[in-house]
């Protein structure tokens, strides 16, 4: 299944790398299958399975890592083209959105109305408030000019030199209109012009126009970083925040109009890329960066640059996929092991060693990993909080004199305090809010958060209690707005004269959660990578270690399997005096005892065999000697009394000769069994041999013999003469098994599993169950005559031909002999 999935995935890939990754799966699989043919033990099969799963998991992890790399690069390139098209070449939709919001707020400002209406008040404060309060920090990328006009559209001061009517005639044309009323986007053909926005805001008081505020924004050559919380941005502008790690520039005639970001276009950008078609289609990789470009109708080029996908990330992705794959494999093996254990199976020794080694390695490493991740996360969080505290403290100390002046009286009003807060926020590039002692918001550098009702305008209750009730001077609180989790640093603002608390400084770090998450991800990535590398190295080494540890056991097992009671056994050689050495010494000592026991056993067997032979020979010889002795005694008695006539002498001599023949037959049988030669195996027709044996007993007076022949020749490997004598002997025994009646013997053949069975069934008296174990013993017989060697010779001859012989009682009486031979 794994192999099929790998081939299926790779089939739809374009890069040749994927086919090499597939080879990672195919080649190890073929090799492992070949190795599995060497042996079929459970231990080897387990090893082969685990090795294949290990290699397959590594292959899929590699496949996944490179797939993620390609996906991320493609996503990044697409994002760069989209960003260049949507924010650089075309209109800046986010800037237009923010400007439109500002245009709706500026006319309602009472401070601006009062300043413009009074001919005696300075107009500089109006410019300052508009720029710092109503123009968001995102617009810092533009060079902002603020012109102030009277109701008759005449300049208010020397900073406004161009009449409003002239600007409106040049810029406020229908071709420059945007979707927002009063806002115009100027498409200048000048090389150095870049983007430009123009807007006119009429200031009303008592429904009468008292003046105008004109905004003229031109994109800067070097665009600064800015702060603007994501929760204030419409969902349509999320794209901008996905591209804050990018650098970009406007180029014209191979000259830089403006640039933004960390990439140094003046020094590092290769302008030869502008002539490469791939630069405008798929992007170009160079020196660890990805460059993309879009050209507008004025032949200006917007270049967007981002870092190339780091190689370390590929390794991290591989580690992640590999660990997930091994977790799945390990879970499957664990379930299988539990199933084997529940069903009564046993896990082999090598697998148990491997399991213990992995447990001894993985469990401590997981514990150390989790502990390290937790400690590093806590350390990073503490460091981050400390930085927040220090920043809040520095800002708070700068604001304390202003707060002291504000609370003293009319020297500093709320507008001036707002301007000061906006200045500090712009310099430090962070958001600032100030609360009064009652916990109500006093001023903020991000009024949009309050105006959009994202907060209530009240200070965090717990923070207020800790500062004003418990006496804390600074603290860090973890807060949440919607799904955005961030840290908020609070600092008590005290009077520089009396030391009383005049308010609380709040510095929210909206990206603190993201920063901490990034730190955790980086730590986890490093830990995963180190873990995976150590795991792979350890796994490879563990196979050799397990093989090394189990080698003595395999070595001893092979030696024990060759240990016999009849052959020569070699002692083991083991140089080390460890536990294996002690086992080898015991084995060698056992061999010495075994050799001594073999000698004694052989001597005992020989003596027992000779005693049995002597007993059998004595028993067989005793039977004919008894009638011979009686006959001689009778002859002696007749000679001493009345003489021995010719007829009686003839009868006595005939009796003696008969008994001598019996003795000769006994001697011949024992001699034949003792020197019985090994059969000469040849291909013979079993059915033909049986037919010849049956024909010998066709005229028997003790019974009848029938043979159901097969419809085809039945060839086996056997000695034809020996097989003929064996079949004849079994038939003769069957015919002699009836005491007072004729016996019928039925012979037929059965075939199964490349073997043939000869069934010899009789209806005689049968065999006593107590004698079943002695039937095939030499010299054992239930008949008054005979040596008892017939069935012993039959068993030996059949087994030498590769067959077996057995018997069982017939259900209706008698005995069934079964002889089984493999077919030739």
Structural commentary:
This protein has 824 residues and is α+β, with helices and mostly antiparallel strands. It is 52% helix and 18% strand. The strands form 5 sheets. Strands 5-7-6-10-9-8 form a 6-stranded mixed sheet. The longest helix is centred in the C-terminal third of the chain and has 63 residues, at 579-641. Residues 37-42, 189-193, 222-228 and 234-241 have low confidence and may be disordered.
Topology:
Elements: H1 2-11, H2 16-36, H3 42-89, H4 93-105, H5 110-117, H6 124-134, E1 142-150, H7 164-171, E2 183-185, E3 196-205, E4 208-219, E5 222-223, H8 238-241, E6 247-252, E7 255-260, H9 265-268, H10 277-281, E8 284-286, E9 289-295, E10 301-307, H11 311-342, H12 349-408, H13 414-428, E11 433-435, E12 441-444, H14 447-451, H15 461-468, E13 474-481, E14 484-494, E15 501-509, H16 512-561, H17 579-641, H18 646-674, E16 682-685, H19 686-696, E17 703-708, E18 715-718, H20 720-735, E19 743-752, E20 755-762, H21 790-800, E21 804-809, E22 815-822
Parallel strand pairs: 5-7, 17-19
Antiparallel strand pairs: 1-4, 2-3, 3-4, 6-7, 6-10, 8-9, 9-10, 11-12, 11-15, 13-14, 14-15, 16-18, 19-20, 20-22, 21-22
Helix pairs in contact: 1-2, 2-3, 3-11, 5-6, 6-13, 11-16, 12-13, 12-16, 17-18, 19-20, 20-21
Give structural attributes.
rod-shaped, 5-stranded antiparallel beta sheet, 6-stranded mixed beta sheet, 22 strands, alpha+beta, 824 residues
Short description:
The chain is of the alpha+beta class. It is 52% helix and 18% strand.
């Amino acid at each position: 299944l794994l192999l099929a999935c790998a081939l299926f995935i790779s089939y739809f890939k374009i890069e040749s790398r994927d086919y090499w990754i597939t080879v990672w799966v195919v080649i190890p699989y073929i090799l492992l299958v070949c190795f599995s043919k060497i042996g079929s033990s459970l231990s080897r099969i387990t090893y082969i399975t685990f090795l294949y799963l290990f290699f397959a998991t590594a292959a899929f992890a590699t496949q996944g890592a490179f797939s993620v790399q390609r996906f991320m690069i493609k996503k990044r390139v697409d994002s760069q083209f989209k960003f260049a098209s949507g924010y650089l070449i075309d209109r800046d939709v986010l800037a237009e959105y923010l400007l439109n919001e500002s245009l709706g707020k500026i006319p309602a400002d009472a401070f601006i109305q009062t300043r413009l209406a009074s001919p005696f008040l300075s107009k500089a404060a109006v410019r300052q408030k508009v720029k710092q309060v109503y123009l968001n920090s995102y617009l810092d990328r533009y060079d902002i000019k603020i012109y102030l006009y009277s109701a008759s559209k005449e300049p208010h001061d020397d900073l406004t030199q161009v009449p409003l009517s002239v600007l409106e005639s040049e810029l406020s044309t229908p071709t420059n209109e945007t979707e927002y009323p009063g806002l115009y986007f100027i498409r200048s053909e000048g090389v150095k012009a870049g983007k430009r926005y123009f807007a006119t805001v009429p200031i009303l008081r008592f429904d009468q126009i008292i003046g105008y505020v004109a905004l003229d924004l031109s994109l800067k050559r070097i665009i600064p970083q800015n702060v603007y919380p994501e929760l204030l941005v419409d969902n349509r502008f999320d794209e901008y925040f996905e591209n804050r790690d990018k650098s970009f520039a406007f180029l014209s005639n191979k000259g830089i109009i403006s640039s933004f970001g960390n990439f140094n276009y003046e020094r590092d950008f290769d302008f030869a890329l502008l002539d490469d078609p791939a630069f405008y289609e798929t992007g170009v990789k160079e020196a660890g960066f990805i460059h993309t470009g879009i050209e507008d109708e004025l032949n200006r080029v917007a270049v967007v640059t981002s870092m190339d996908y780091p190689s370390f990330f590929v390794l991290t992705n591989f580690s992640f996929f590999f660990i997930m794959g091994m977790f799945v494999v390990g879970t499957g093996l664990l379930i299988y092991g539990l199933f084997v254990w529940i069903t009564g199976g046993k896990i082999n020794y090598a697998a148990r060693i491997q399991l213990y080694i992995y447990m001894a390695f993985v469990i401590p490493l997981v514990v150390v990993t989790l502990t390290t991740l937790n400690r590093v996360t806590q350390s990073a969080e503490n460091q981050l909080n400390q930085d927040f505290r220090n920043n809040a403290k520095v800002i708070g100390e700068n604001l304390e004199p202003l707060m002291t002046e504000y609370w003293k009286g009319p020297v500093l009003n709320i507008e001036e305090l707002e301007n000061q807060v906006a200045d500090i926020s712009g310099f430090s590039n962070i958001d600032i809010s100030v609360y009064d002692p009652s916990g109500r918001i006093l001023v903020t550098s991000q009024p949009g958060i309050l105006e959009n009702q994202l907060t209530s305008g009240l200070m965090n209750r717990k923070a207020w209690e800790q500062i004003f009730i418990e006496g804390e001077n600074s603290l860090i609180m973890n807060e949440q707005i919607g799904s955005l989790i961030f840290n908020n640093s609070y600092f008590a603002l005290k009077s520089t004269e009396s030391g009383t608390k005049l308010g609380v400084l709040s510095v929210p770090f909206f990206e603190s959660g993201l920063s901490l998450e990034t730190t955790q991800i980086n730590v986890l990535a490093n830990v995963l990578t180190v873990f995976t590398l150590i795991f792979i190295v350890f796994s490879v080494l563990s196979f050799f270690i397990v093989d090394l540890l189990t080698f003595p056991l395999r070595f001893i097992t092979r030696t024990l399997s060759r240990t016999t009671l009849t052959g020569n056994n070699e002692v083991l050689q083991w140089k080390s005096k460890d536990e294996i050495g002690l086992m080898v010494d015991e084995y060698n000592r056992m061999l010495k005892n075994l050799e001594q026991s073999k000698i004694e056993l052989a001597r005992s067997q020989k003596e027992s065999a000779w005693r049995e032979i002597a007993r059998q020979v004595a028993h067989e010889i005793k039977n004919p000697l008894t009638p011979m002795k009686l006959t001689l005694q009778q002859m002696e008695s007749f000679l001493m009394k009345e003489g021995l006539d010719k007829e009686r002498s003839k009868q006595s001599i005939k009796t003696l000769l008969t008994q001598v023949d019996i003795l000769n037959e006994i001697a011949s049988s024992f001699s034949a069994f003792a020197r019985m030669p090994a059969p000469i195996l040849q291909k013979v027709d079993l059915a033909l041999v049986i037919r010849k044996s049956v024909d010998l007993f066709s005229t028997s007076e003790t019974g009848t013999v029938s043979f159901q022949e097969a419809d085809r020749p039945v060839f086996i490997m056997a000695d034809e003469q020996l097989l003929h004598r064996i079949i004849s002997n079994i038939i003769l025994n069957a015919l002699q098994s009836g005491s007072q009646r004729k016996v019928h013997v039925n012979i037929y053949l059965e075939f199964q599993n490349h073997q043939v069975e000869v069934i010899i069934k009789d209806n005689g008296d049968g065999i006593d169950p107590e004698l079943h174990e002695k039937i095939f013993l030499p010299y054992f017989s239930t008949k008054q005559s005979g040596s008892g060697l017939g069935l012993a010779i039959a068993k030996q001859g059949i087994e030498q031909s590769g067959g077996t012989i057995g018997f069982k009682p017939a259900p209706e009486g008698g005995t069934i002999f079964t002889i089984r031979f493999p077919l030739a």
